[in-house]
Specification:
By secondary structure, this protein is of the alpha/beta class. The chain is 37% helix and 16% strand. It contains 14 helices and 16 strands. It binds ligand KE4.
Length: 426
């Protein structure tokens, strides 16, 4: 494939946009390639500016579960736009979207719509701190919850419990209230509660991690977090920005029958438009302004065009219930990939849950960030570049998740497996 136009467009972009991209991972730095520039997308396909077509398994980092340019979503969005694009005044469609979320998530009585997953997480944590009048938050190493200052915290010194800023510009003071524990490590969380019990406002977790690659919770792990939070009067926050409406219409919490106190959502609920949401029990959500005193606001929160896309997406998911087919197709794809790589003697692991998976070039079980970090990222880069050359677009990072959409068919999976068969390690 030739990418002359993308290469030139990247040069132009870098003159006026930091790194040439509006989100770092899009720069393809970790896969040793230069980014392609997309002209359009339809169904499972991306089309770049050089006329190359790719089967897309990144799906805009998750939102495009119905495939690109879904005709019903486009039709609803066009109708909404014809009536104006933003009022900054309530609309009944916002209530309808909130009602759909409340109906899908038993742990959610009320929802506040915002414009990104980051905003949803920021709001959830402020709410938890306001309600509990405590400052500390436990997060898990390898989980990503948006670029909120106090979530940009990496494992600090000692037993990696006290957070240290993971980015310049995050004051140490902001990080000192963020505690860290390894994913799937109950004992580490118990130790933090033993040490800081009445200072911990919340535990926030991706109930199925997607940001260290796909890492499911070990049996009993989430239930244990639930009981530790209840016992210590801390709030349990499930960050389901990726998993909400991806792994089932009610997210991981419904699949695993666990009720968090707060849930953050995003991606799929906007159907490809900027949206986020924070939801939870009425007794907590009523503390949010203007009903309560915990402040939160947003010019484009609940924007009618974004809400129209979200309603069109969730309505189709509710009607079609595509999850069993998405799961079986993803299982089939992952089975084919592992068969192919095993036949080549290439060490790898595939973590999959529902239609979300990650291929790790690694020979150990991946259960947390430490094990994920031992993956061969150079080999992942080789694999990414090979698949891209064969017309298959994967997430441009070893530490992200792949997704299928309802627009992917067996034929697309066959083409993908044919490409994987041609992979040669160097
Ligand atoms: P946004 O602010 O990017 O809408 O959402 C932040 C966020 C919150 N919580 C979880 C579990 C998330 O995965 C994300 C964002 N996901 C990344 C990719 N895994 C977005 C891609 C990017 O940063 O460009």
């Amino acid at each position: 494939m030739q990418n002359r136009k993308s290469a030139q467009l990247f040069k132009n972009a870098k003159k006026v946009i930091p790194g040439g991209v509006n989100s770092p991972v899009r720069a393809f730095q970790s896969v040793g390639a230069k980014p392609i520039f997309i002209e359009k997308a339809k169904g499972p396909f991306l089309y770049d500016e050089d006329g190359n077509r790719y089967i897309d398994y990144c799906l805009s980092w998750g939102p495009m579960i119905l495939g690109h340019a879904n005709k019903t979503v486009l039709s609803e969005v066009k109708q909404a736009m014809a009536k104006g694009t933003s009022y900054g005044i309530p609309t009944c469609q916002e209530t309808q979207l909130a009602e759909m979320v409340v109906e899908a998530f038993p742990a959610i009585d009320k929802v506040r719509l915002v414009s990104s997953g980051t905003e949803a997480v920021m709001t959830a944590i402020r709410l938890a701190r306001g309600v509990t009048e405590r400052d500390m938050v436990i997060k898990f190493i390898g989980c990503y919850h948006g670029h909120v200052d106090h979530m940009l915290v990496s494992a600090g010194s000692g037993l990696m419990t006290l957070g240290a800023p993971s980015s310049p510009g995050v004051p140490r003071d902001f990080a000192k209230n963020t505690l860290l524990a390894p994913y799937n490590n109950v004992e580490a969380v118990e130790k933090l509660f033993a040490k800081y019990a009445d200072r911990i406002a919340a535990v926030i977790i991706e109930p199925v991690a997607g940001n260290m690659g796909t890492v499911p919770p070990k049996p009993g792990f989430l239930k244990k977090l639930r009981s530790l939070c209840t016992k210590n009067k801390s709030l349990l926050i499930f960050d389901e920005v990726i998993s909400g409406f991806r792994l089932g219409f009610g997210g991981v919490q419904t699949l695993m029958n666990i009720k968090p106190d707060l849930t953050t959502l995003g991606k799929i609920i906007g159907g490809g438009f900027p949206i986020g949401a924070v939801g939870g029990k009425a007794s907590i959500m009523k503390k949010l302004s203007p009903e309560g005193t915990v402040y939160q606001a947003g010019t484009l929160s609940g924007n009618p065009v974004c809400v129209a896309a979200g309603l069109a997406t969730l309505s189709q998911l509710k009607k079609q219930n595509p999850y069993p087919k998405l799961e079986s197709m993803t299982e089939c794809l992952c089975g084919g990939i592992t068969q192919t790589l095993s036949a080549k003697g290439i060490e790898h692991q595939i973590n999959r849950i529902g239609s979300m998976f990650t291929l790790f070039f690694n020979d150990i079980e991946i259960t947390d960030y430490d094990s994920a970090a031992k993956s061969d990222t150079d080999r992942y880069g080789q694999y990414f570049r090979h698949m891209l050359e064969c017309g298959v677009y994967l997430p441009p990072s070893q530490f992200e998740a792949n997704f299928l959409s309802t627009a992917h068919t067996e034929r697309h999976l066959e083409k993908t497996l044919a490409a994987a068969k041609k992979f040669r390690v160097r």
